[in-house]
TrEMBL record:
Gene3D superfamilies: NAD(P)-binding Rossmann-like Domain. PANTHER family: BIFUNCTIONAL POLYMYXIN RESISTANCE PROTEIN ARNA (PTHR43245), NAD(P)-BINDING DOMAIN-CONTAINING PROTEIN (PTHR43245:SF23). SUPFAM superfamilies: NAD(P)-binding Rossmann-fold domains. This is PutativeUDP-glucose 4-epimerase GalE. The gene is galE. It comes from the Bacteria. CDD domains: SDR_e. Residues 3-242 form the NAD-dependent epimerase/dehydratase domain.
Length: 397
């Protein structure tokens, strides 16, 4: 089986690739990414992309369709991936998250791909009172990011067919450790606060409801989406992914982290304006359709793995909300350094190359073996990590 994963060099991608490499050892795994966050690594010995058969670099808005040849399943992670970035880059968010996603799905169907798994989000429920939201409940997207996910789902619904199973996984908010960490996620932020400062500052009044899911359990759900046939849930399926016990109020998450990291104080901003994004989610459809792929990680385990991961990194940055582990901060840094433009296109491929090489992780010691062989070169602009080195096959940007 050949699987293309877009947006694989972000936060979820490295965890997913590790999971798929183990669960589907014979699968050919290829990645496609623009590399905005590729150098934002944690304590790792080698680039997570060495677990792939090939890595392509390029922009999804100029996706070279030939990469879909022979592909059985597409996992589409690539996106402007949260509300702050969506607010800052509103029209680009529409271009990348909506237009390019629809075009990718159309091309995938045309090229005979059998399964298309889309990383959607429960944030499309927005502010929802009156109990946990089911898939059939009205949507209330409050941000450009959430609206883009709703818009893609509408298009994908038209494309699902007996030979093209489309699964839109409406994920809860992610948490947990990854070889490319994000600290702009509620639980990850709290653990980083506890480790670096011994104090969790909750920016809201702590009352909003937020369903959470560990990145390992997201990977398990994606694995299910890849294998899902249209007769299990329909040619197009939108499904909430998570479990009901993981519907938490933000203040409860802060208390759980404080318990796990002894000596941590919790300060809640009681004067904060009410956070409009608050919802609980009903996961019964996912439990019914995917009994063997249900979340397994406990909240305690997620917190522990984050704490251990941060400690291994020697993490002590009290000012981490200004660091490279905040996605928006990273994009703004690229723009301030004049290597990325406001439309989120790299200005020059040499800039991109130097960012990738600055991670110092291109070569995996002693690794030149099977799985890293040169994949077919083709036209279009992309760049390939192969056999422990990068090969420059860019055309014009
Ligand atoms: N993290 C969460 O809480 C969460 C929850 C629900 C859904 N999701 C969805 O899961 C997916 C992955 O999330 P993540 O947390 O790994 O995000 P991320 O921001 O860490 O990774 C996204 C990746 O997409 C790439 N990308 C962005 N624009 C691109 C473009 N124009 N061309 C090529 N590549 C591009 C980036 O370089 C990055 O590597 C996203 O679609 C996100 O919306 C995430």
């Amino acid at each position: 089986m050949k699987i293309l994963i877009t947006g694989n060099t972000g936060y979820i991608g490295p965890v997913l690739v590790r999971h798929l490499r183990k669960a589907l050892p014979d699968a050919e795994l290829i990645g496609f990414d623009s590399g905005f966050f590729t150098h934002c690594l944690t304590a790792v010995q080698y680039m997570p992309e060495f677990d792939l058969n090939a890595q392509y670099w390029g922009d999804i808005r100029n996706f070279p369709d030939e990469l879909l040849k022979g592909v059985d399943a597409v996992v589409h992670l690539c996106a402007v991936s949260n509300d702050p970035m969506g607010n800052r880059f509103e029209s680009v968010t529409r271009d990348i998250n909506f237009e390019a996603s629809r075009n990718l799905a159309l091309s995938a169907k045309k090229q005979g791909v059998k399964a298309f798994v889309f990383a959607s989000s429960c944030s499309m429920y927005g502010y929802a009172e009156g109990g946990p939201r089911k898939e059939s409940d009205p949507l209330n997207p409050l941000t450009a990011y959430a609206r883009s996910k709703v818009a893609v789902e509408k298009e994908l619904e038209k494309l699902g067919s007996t030979d093209f199973a489309v699964t839109s996984l409406r994920f809860s908010t992610a948490c947990g450790m990854s070889r490319r960490l994000r600290l702009d996620l509620v639980l990850n932020d709290f653990v980083a606060c506890a480790v670096a400062a011994g104090e969790i500052t909750v920016l809201s009044d702590g009352t909003p409801w937020r369903p959470l899911i560990d990145v390992k359990d997201m990977s398990r759900a994606i694995d299910w989406g890849i294998s899902r046939k249209p007769d299990m849930g329909g040619a197009f399926l939108a499904v909430n992914v998570g479990c009901s016990e993981w519907n938490y109020q933000v203040k409860d998450l802060a208390e759980a982290v404080a318990k796990s990291v002894p000596g941590t104080k919790v300060s809640i901003n009681t004067n904060a304006q009410p956070d409009k994004r608050s919802y609980q989610v009903d996961f019964s459809q996912f439990a019914e359709l995917a009994p063997d792929y249900q979340p397994q990680v406990t909240l305690q385990q997620s917190i522990e793995e984050l704490r251990e991961g941060l400690e291994q990194m020697g993490f002590a940055d009290k000012n981490f909300r200004e660091s490279q582990f905040m996605r928006l901060k990273m994009l703004d840094t690229h723009i301030a350094e004049n290597v990325l433009n406001e439309q989120l296109f790299w200005k020059n491929r040499h800039h991109f190359n130097s960012i990738i090489s600055s991670s110092n992780m291109i070569s995996k010691p002693g690794q030149n073996g099977p799985g890293f062989e040169k994949s077919q070169e083709s036209s279009g602009f992309f760049h390939n990590v192969i056999a422990g080195k990068t090969e420059d096959v860019w055309n014009d940007i």
